Amino acid sequence: MSRTNPALALSAKARRTGEQPISFLMAAVQANPNLINFAAGLVDPLTLPVDTVRRIAQTIFTSDARGRAALQYDTTLGLASLRRAALKHLEKLEQKSAADFGVSERDILISTGSQQALYLIGDVLIDPGDIVIAANPCYFVYTGTLASLGATVIPVPMTSDGIDVSAIEKLLGRLERENQIGRVKLIYTTSYFQNPTGLTLSAQARPRLLELARRFSRHHRIMILEDAAYRELRYDGPDLPSIKSQERENQHTILTHTFSKPFAPGLKTGYTAMPADLLEAVLHQKGNHDFGSASLTQHIAAEALDSGLYDQHVRLLCQSYRLKRDAMLEALKRFIPASSGASWTYPSGGLYIWLTLANDLDTSRSSRLFQACVDKGVLYVPGEYSFQPVDGPAADDRGFIPKNHVRLSFGQVAPEQIEPGIERLAQAIAASVSQRPGEASPTRDVLPMNAHP
Amino acid sequence: MSRTNPALALSAKARRTGEQPISFLMAAVQANPNLINFAAGLVDPLTLPVDTVRRIAQTIFTSDARGRAALQYDTTLGLASLRRAALKHLEKLEQKSAADFGVSERDILISTGSQQALYLIGDVLIDPGDIVIAANPCYFVYTGTLASLGATVIPVPMTSDGIDVSAIEKLLGRLERENQIGRVKLIYTTSYFQNPTGLTLSAQARPRLLELARRFSRHHRIMILEDAAYRELRYDGPDLPSIKSQERENQHTILTHTFSKPFAPGLKTGYTAMPADLLEAVLHQKGNHDFGSASLTQHIAAEALDSGLYDQHVRLLCQSYRLKRDAMLEALKRFIPASSGASWTYPSGGLYIWLTLANDLDTSRSSRLFQACVDKGVLYVPGEYSFQPVDGPAADDRGFIPKNHVRLSFGQVAPEQIEPGIERLAQAIAASVSQRPGEASPTRDVLPMNAHP
Fold it and tell me: Cα distance from B254 to chain A (closest Cα, Å)?
């Protein structure tokens, strides 16, 4: 029987939503499982708390009452004991009482990873054409999400002090003069050990950013979305207080945390503190999405926090990642000569090192360098994916997307893979340098960052 | 320091999205935990598989490799072994090879409960003003979700054979003549033991519905969204083949299943078979929502299916619910006299009985009957919430919302609560009948249904 094959009629949003750009990396891994994978933002499988979660599951399911609660529906907002434990944990991180930054258990949302919270916040704030200010480079999964929601993402440069707060001030001033300030909904910043650069928003910049959000909220409230996914993976230096902890009123900042990076991605559990009116809108939306994340994984996360096993695990994890970070920095220093014009960041935490090559070297997916790396058995994320193409009212000279950056992650790799992986990368870079075209391509250094000392 | 409190500027979608209408029921339960709760659509806590999941968790976490996989990220599509096991399970339910209905593992999406799949499907198909055809009454969480997406939900009557397929044919014909057929995206049907009526789409109606979707898909593909959440909670009669299993091409039907009702809501895991082009759009969207549901709960669900523990549990569950259904039907017969004009459905599965009172009795939230029940310590869902207000091109005489229905669930209550609960309800009804106003309110019987024999 022959039958026509009528097309699906997709929504405008579906038509705006493409595949995440880096799925080709997965294909490269599948083609060669022996690749040394500096591309994956995954956590180290060997550090996953298998035995800890086994014991926690035993504790939960040995009690009929707890076991039943873990297998029943919970609320859309999230398990009360987890919200309590998360708030207590937050107080410990901030070293102050939650009352001093206006947050109670009722202001904490549990979500399916912090990504779901990021999504929901975008969903309730953004209409097509609205503006989000974000760093350039930035976490590309979220800028993709924002684009799918129809947002115009206006990038401001990333500096060694984090997102460039002076550039945000200038931008907001211009948008106000141009009567576009009504479109500005969010300022998005990964305030600790940013993906992809590994850089942290400085202590001085934090209150300044908050002051800007307040000052420019004359017509409606401009929110700061502070993504603290990597906060607890800290290897050097002090833990800075969050932006959120610096406002008393729980009004302008949203602070997202996750259990994925510091504990286990498989729990897919995040927690977010946000203003009550925003939370109400987010809850209505989450009611439609799933009316609550899996309660079993919430019970496990709550028990991990309450028992102290979470803190123990974070300490072990930091030791393990610190060694891997040091090994990668050491290998970069050893194999990439100063004469090459390359520099890289020195992250005090997180999973990423951002490598900047000479201006005329191309790291993109279609480049000889990328192919040479795949051939040699090492994988990275081309830096271009972390940059925003600029459109809308900010289409000035920042529309340029540099091609000479590399995101390196020491997250998933085994310690002993780091040196050989960087050696392979360095060989591929050296070969690319020797094959340089005579004429330099039109590039520019857009990212003044802290280079390796 | 005094400071202005500028308002949030919410998105159009957030402004369309209200609280789920029945949160007042939660408040009633919190005020009196001793209420006999026929309102909650929760599963029976005493039947939750605590010991089974404890053993499954042990199995998973005793192996380092499996434990690590369960704690690591998985893919956006979902755990491969769960998709395989779900497909095998589906073949058993349909009693035919999946190849015969065009579905492979790659066409199965794992989601955070089936609600997330329902949401995502709406999100990728519906622009504001698009039409979804649904039964009246219908599962109110999803009609609320559709309204939030901006859909115009056009209701067609529910009959004892399920959603009224002849009415759908008439409606589609009219929409085609009026050049509105381009707006029709979905026909939504809970094809087994519907929430709220307990009624099932008849064997004869299933291929007819599929034929209609095909016939009216001249310009774009009209999809049937078949929600099979209650399918495996079957107490009498044969398991009918799904609508999905009756098309060879995997083109017009989406079939959603969940582990929440037949196993454990706390896993919050559902699986959905759908056409490849639709799945691609859904995956892009889910990539933005959460890039994959919790992998730990997926590993548990997969092990439950593979080990046979799932099937064992479903058998136990059906025995337990069958007894509770019978007790509720028995109590209704005993306490509600034939002379009252009341009738009720006789569900062969699921969690609900739909009680229809005399036309002039009001069951709504603000009614004397509802308050009398709360005072006596029994709770139900007023039937009005399951009906659609009609707007848009179908604003004809179906705009009427009847107030004389009650949704009763025997899901969460203990067996020994059923008789006293129905007795209290019957007393409240008898008191309302005696307090009837002299003048009957303008009502009409809109739902010819199978009454208790």
Answer: 13
